[in-house]
Amino acid sequence: MLDPNEWFTEVVASDGAAFSLRVRDRLHAEQTPYQFIEIYDTEGFGKLMVIDGCTMLSTRENFLYHEMMSHPALYTHAAPRRVCIIGGGDCGTLREVLRHESVESAVQIDIDERVTRLAEQYFPELTESNADPRATLLFEDGVRWIEEAAPGSLDLIIVDSTDPVGPAEGLFTRDFYAQCERALAAGGILIQQSESPLYHVKILREMHEAMRGAGFDSTQTLCFPQTIYPSGWWSATMAGKGVALDRFRVEAAREKSFETQYYNAGIHQGALALPEFLRRALG
Amino acid sequence: MLDPNEWFTEVVASDGAAFSLRVRDRLHAEQTPYQFIEIYDTEGFGKLMVIDGCTMLSTRENFLYHEMMSHPALYTHAAPRRVCIIGGGDCGTLREVLRHESVESAVQIDIDERVTRLAEQYFPELTESNADPRATLLFEDGVRWIEEAAPGSLDLIIVDSTDPVGPAEGLFTRDFYAQCERALAAGGILIQQSESPLYHVKILREMHEAMRGAGFDSTQTLCFPQTIYPSGWWSATMAGKGVALDRFRVEAAREKSFETQYYNAGIHQGALALPEFLRRALG
After folding, report:
1. Which residues in chain B have their CB less than 8 angstroms from residue A9's CB?
2. DSSP H helical ranges for chain A
C-alpha cells in the first residue's frame, strides 16, 4: 500500500497505529554514539528529523511543540532570568526562550552534538538565535549537569527530550526531578514533554506522582496538537516550586513583543484545561 | 512495511501524509446507493467505520468529535429546544444532544440509512438513545429537508457530515447556509464540522465567508484533537443568528448533569481560542 521507498512510517505498536509522511529523499542517516538520526525531505512537511525511528520534528509544524515547550512556562514564572534546556538539540526551544527579554542566560545541554549540527544544516531557522550572547550550548549529560548545578541557580528547566526509553530514560525519574527541584530557585518551574494524552495516561500519572514525590508542590499538564507525534495530540507537564501553575502573566502574554504561530494568551489558558478523562485520571 | 492485510490506511495525498490502524478483521463492506462503507475490528481503537476510504469513527476516540459537535453549541444557545442534525447517521451526536434536558426535539436527517443500521450493529453505545421520544430519525436529503423547514422553526442545526467532496458537497455552500439561516429562529446557531486547522485553512476561510454571506452575523471556529482524522487535529465552525458565539452558559456547563469524556467548561473556553496562524488567516 505505502511503498517504503516513498513513505517514512512510524508505528506505535502498543496502540496499533501508524503515521506516515511521503518522502522525496533521505538526505542523511547517521549512527551517533547515542542514537540513529535520519533527515528526510518530505512532500508536504518540509524537512523531517527522525531519531531511532521516531519522528522528532518537521519544518511545517515544529512550531506547535517548540512554542508550547517554552512560552507557557516562561509566562507562568514571575520573572524568568536563568533558563536551562535539557535535550532540545535542534535549538527550536532555545530560539523561543530567547524571544523573552527577561531571560539573561539560556543554557542548552544536549548529550548528542550531532543533533545540533544537523539542525544547523537542515533546520537553519531553528538555530538562528544560537549566536545570541545569552545562549550557551553544551554537549554533555544533562542529568549530571543538573546534579552539579548550584542550588537555587535556575528559574526554569525545560526538559525537551525524546521518549522515556533509551538515552532519555533517566530524565523521567523522581531522582532527576529532585535534582531539578534543588537547582531551581523559589518560584522556579520545571517543564517536560509528557507524551500523548490519549496513549500515555499511565506515563502522565507517574510523572505527576514522581514530581510531587521529588518535592514540587504543584503540577500541571498542558495539552496541544502535534501532528507528527503518536495520536497527533501531545502534552507537556509543569512542576512548580512555590508557584501556582494554573495562572500566568496574561497581560504580558497578550502584549508579547514577538510573533508566534500557535501560542497566544487564549491558547495558553485553553491548554491548562484538562479533558474530563485526563482530569479524572490525574486526580 | 505496513502489510495491507493487517493495516487500514488513509492517505491524505494533498499533504503527503497517511494514518493507519492495525486491523484484526474487516467485519463488513458494502456499497450503498450513496457511498462505500466498511467496518473493521482494530487492534487498539475498537471498531472502525470507514466511508469511501476515509476514517469516520472509532470506538476509542469518537467521544472527542461527538462531544465537540454538540455541547459547545448547545451551551452557547440561550435555551436550545429544537435541534436538527444533518448527517450524523452513526447517532453519536444525537446521543450527546439528547443529554441536554432543554432539548424538546432532535431530528436526525442522514441520506444513508445504512450508516445508522451499521452503527446499531457495531457501535451500539452510540445508538442507545435512539428510542428517546424526543428523537426522530429520517433518511432523506438533508439539504431538501432544511429547504422545506418552516422559517424560524429550529434553534440549532448541526451539520455532522463527511468531507466537502461527494455526497456532502452541497452542505458546504452559501445557498445551504442561507437556508439554514432562514430555518433558524432568532438566537439560533449552525455548527458544522470544518476539517483540519492545519491542512484546510482555505476551506475554513471560505466557510466563514459563505456563512457571513448567507446572512449570519457571527462565526466562530472551535479546534479540538481528533486522532483518526487527517493531521490528528480537527475543527467545527459555528454561525450565529444574533448571538455572540465567544460566550456560553459557563455555569450550566460547569454543573452539567451528565458525564463527558472530553468536554467541560474549560475545554469549551479553550476551544474558542484560535491559534495565531488561524486567527490571522480568518481575519
Report:
1. 1-2, 18, 20
2. 62-76, 92-97, 113-122, 142-148, 174-183, 201-213, 250-254, 265-272, 276-281
